[in-house]
Amino acid sequence: YCRISRDDAGLGTGVERQREDVERIAANENWTIVDRFVDNNQSASRHARKTRHGWTQLLQLVDDSDIDAIVVYDLDRLTRQPKELERLIDLADEGVLQIRDASGAVDLESASGRHYARGRCAAAAHEADRASERQKRKLQADAAMGRPHWGHRPFGYNRDTTVNTDEAPIVVAMYEQIAQGHSPNAVATWLNNNGHTSTRGGHWRSTTVAGLITAHRNIAQITRKTSDKTVEVVGDAQWTPLVGRDLFDQANAALRARKPGTPHRGRVALLTGMIRCTCGAIMVRGTSNGHPQYRCASRQSNPASTCTSSASGNRVDQIVVGAVLAGVGDIAAQPAPAVGNIASTASTIEALRVDLSDLATMFGNREITMAEFKAARTP
């Protein structure tokens, strides 16, 4: 297992050097390497925001008893969290796992080795906590003075927080399209088709478009994430906003309206669960030789039931609908509800058609699964 916390260039040279050393250790131990896991540019502290996929896969092999040893360059490459170390110590104490590093000092099978490992891990965790405190204090000071904290240059601004005159009109156009009902995916397609790349030179995706639309920096506000992961505005920024507050609110309202809720099929038959058999059990809709049918559901709750009553689904529906209409009698007609702006409705319909076309294209290109396609198409 190889890990390094910072590799902004993404070259992977640090983890490659680790790999050479750990493979040498495995060879000296005469161990067979069954898999290699790498977490490049990933922190191992409890403050890390990214999931360590290599670490997760490694633990899965441990849990499945598919390996009996882990080799790392140094203990703090493996973990900087005491609770994670204790899990490994328990496995080593049971004799099912060994850990080796380049120093040769890590030996979780002995009392002195565990004492050394715990001390190293506690020191690493303390160092991570101190670094987190310093970072938070800096962010608080920056926010109080209206200064930015940008990991990389955001689209629409220069690195010195001045407005990027080439990108600013594109940002405004993105907000306008979202406010008019276009999907983030449609906006991403528009950006890519017109040769507009992100600040890192990459293609736009629906997620990156949505992320830009919700970013309060575009209205010159500084935010922070609270403990419950919500965004809280902490103050006004010193830089120039790219869009007005009204357009920002309209676009974000349109974006929130697009989020699908829990899919609900609704009633699949007129009277399922509403009518009862002569035995007292409810009746459910089914088919018999291709014809709709209501069947007694007593066996679903009582396997010992012998009731097999059924009735024609279409016939029962007709009788009930006729009885309801006869009982309703003469009702005064009500004015039809206003249909609103026809042009706006037509624009919405066209936007939905574009969305469906985009979804079909994404599925055809295998960018989304069938399950994701159905979940997005339903609403």
Task: Describe the protein.
This protein is mostly helical and 379 residues long. Helix content is 46%, strand content 10%. It is built from 13 helices and nine strands. It has helices at residues 13-28, 53-63, 75-78, 82-93, 111-144, 168-179, 184-193, 206-214, 245-258, 298-301, 313-328, 342-364, 370-377, and strands at residues 2-4, 38-40, 69-71, 98-100, 221-225, 231-236, 283-288, 291-296, 310-312. A three-stranded antiparallel β-sheet has the order 7-8-9. Strands 1-2 form a two-stranded parallel sheet. Helix 4 runs antiparallel to helix 5 (111-144), helix 6 packs across helix 9 (245-258) and helix 7 crosses helix 8. Mean pLDDT is 81; it is low at 262-266.
